[in-house]
Structures are given as C-alpha cells and as structure tokens.
Amino acid sequence: MQWINHELYIAPIDAYIDPIKPVDKAIITHGHADHARPGHQKVLASRQTIDIMKIRYGEKSATSFQSMEFGKPLRINDVTITLHPAGHILGSAQISIEYRGQRVVVTGDYKTIPDSSAQAFEIIKCDLFVTEATFGLPIFQHPSPHNEINNLLKSISEQPKRTHLIGVYSLGKAQRVISLLREAGYDHPIFIHGALEKLCDYYSSEGINLGLLRKALVQDKETMKGAVVMAPPSALRDRWSRRLMDPIICQASGWMTIKQRAKRSGVELPLIISDHADWNELTSTIDSTEADTIWVTHGREDALVHWCKLNGKNAEPLRLQGRDEELEI
Ligand SMILES: [Zn+2]
Ligand SMILES: [Zn+2]
Asked: In a 3-state reduction of DSSP, which class is residue 290?
C-alpha cells in the first residue's frame, strides 16, 4: 500500500497516526502518553480522547481539536476516516482509513474482552491491519479479570486490618479496577492518590460507575486500615506509600503474568489485569479482520510476525520509536 508508510503517515491527507514528534495533522487513537503527545497543530480524535488530552496536557496542547463520533465517517479529499472502538480505555479508537478501494485499520492499543469502563472492541474487515503486540507471545494468556478481583476480595477478607495498596496506571487501569470492584459488589469507599483524581472524576462524569472515592491523605492512615488504596505504580515505592501502615502491595497489570517481575518490584499480590489483547486475542482478531497484510508494532513483534507468515499472511514488524507500555503513567 503506497499511501501509508511505516511511520503511519497517510500521504493523501498529509496526516500521521499517533506521531511521537509534533506534526501539522495528527490522528490520535487514545490518551496514553505513548500515543497522545502535546504540541501538534491539528488533532483529530474521539471526543473522550480529546477531553483526556486536555486534562493531561492543557486546553491549548494542540492548536485545534476536531472530535469524531465512533462509526461516523469523515471524508477528506478522497480519503474516508472512521473511528471504531478499540476496547482499551475510555474513548480509545481504531482508525479506519479508506482510499482507492482499500481499507487500512490501525488499532492503537486494544483488547477484545468486555470492559465496562471502555467502549466494546469492534472487528473491522480490512486489507491492511496494523496491530499492537504488547503481549505478543504465546505465554501471555490473561486470566479472567473477575478471577483476579476475587483474589483481591479474598485477601481483603482474610486480612481485614491491613491496607491493600494497588499500583495502577492513572489512565484506564485505575478506573477499570475500581469499576470491576464495584461490579463485584465492593461498596466501601476507595481511596485514591491525588495523581488519579482528575481522570477518575472524568470517568465518573462520563457515566462510568466508580462509586464513592476519597482522596488518600496521610492523616487518614487509620481510616485506610482495611481499605483499598489506589496509587500510580511509581508511588508504591516512594515515601508516600511508606506512610501507610504495613500495606499489602498489589499491582494490576498484564505484566504480572511474569512472576519474577512482580517479585522484583516488591508486589505481594499480583493482579493480572491487562488492557491489551493477549496472544489468543491477537491471533483471533488478526484472523477475523481477513486482512492479507499485517503490520505489527508496539512490543513483541517477532513472534506475531512469524505466526502471521505461518498462517499465509504478509507480515512486517514496525519499529515505531517511543512505544512502551511502561511509559503509560
Ligand atoms: Zn495505551
Ligand atoms: Zn500503547
């Protein structure tokens, strides 16, 4: 396909998808920092992604913003752009671009399992499918998130005097874990680190049920005994968390599959809750798109490229720079 290149630059409309450096025209899949950057001239994205960019980077973080509704095509020159839900975080979109009878779909990050804090993933048939591969190895088979939440609830009931301090990325993971807890019937107030406040408020204002949230203040450490406290992973190891009394350190992440990694970061109760597709989701999604060409980016490209080739598809790794889930804070 001549009109889109490995930097996800779409020549006929002179626009980039999720560019790392400031550009004139950017189409943004979702609000995580490795996809949405400040400093572009024109930004095209879902309304919620634009709201999130403004919350994180400021109202003037781009010269102009244009929001698009999911499923409503926008025609620019001879190019038709449509956003479809990616199921990753609130407002996250796959970008479909049609030009001269061919369709390209760029997923950004995605997952296909249900998540009540994000719009449900949709399969879009296409000719070229650009997929992430954060968990692109067969060893990554995420358990059901409900199972992980049950483990957490069990630990809370077994150790009712200790604080459960959960490390969560501030955008997406925090709100998903809270809404999973609410769905499981946990109705106590949940304490949140100040870094999570604005985005939790935003999710609530968008109708996601987060229940009663309270700011985690050090002077309330007695009250937080037996409670759930959420904080960004970086706060788990700093002075802030040491002020809590004898907390049980938990972390919610797809990476918790790797036991040594959990141990190394001092995580006592790992919760394998991922906002990215696991190996089976990646391969079945690739099949369902019926695309004959697959570009793989964002993580462990090689195994997925190999799988595609074995299954009769053209596949290439895209070595986009600056893409790493670790950056998503
Ligand atoms: Zn992301
Ligand atoms: Zn990402």
From this structure: coil
One pLDDT digit (tens) per residue for the chain, 329 residues: 789 999 999 999 999 999 999 999 999 999 999 999 999 999 999 999 999 999 999 999 999 999 999 999 999 999 999 999 999 999 999 999 999 999 999 999 999 999 999 999 999 999 999 999 999 999 999 999 999 999 999 999 999 999 999 999 999 999 999 999 999 999 999 999 999 999 999 999 999 999 999 999 878 888 899 999 999 998 887 777 877 878 999 999 999 999 998 998 889 999 999 999 999 999 999 999 999 999 999 888 899 999 999 999 999 999 765 555 544 43
Q: How far is the CA of 328 from the centre of ligand 1 (A)?
A: 7
For residue 109, report the distance from its CA to the centre of ligand 2, in Å. 5
Q: Are strands 15-17 and 9-10 parallel, antiparallel or unpaired?
A: antiparallel
Structural domains of the chain, with CATH:
9-139+276-327 (3.60.15.10), 145-271 (3.40.50.12650)
The model carries a pTM of: 0.95
CA–centroid distance, 204 to ligand 2, in Å, is: 23
Nearest to 314 by CA among 302, 306, 303: 306
* Distance of CA 171 from the midpoint of ligand 2 (Å): 12
Q: Tell me the HSE value of 52 on the side-chain side, using a 13 A CA sphere.
A: 26
For the residues of 23-90, what is the DSSP string, one character each?
Answer: -SEEE-S-SSTTT--S-EEEEEEEHHHHHHHHHHH-TTSEEEEEEE-BT--EEETTEEEEEEE-SSST
- Distance from CA of residue 162 to its chain's centroid? 30
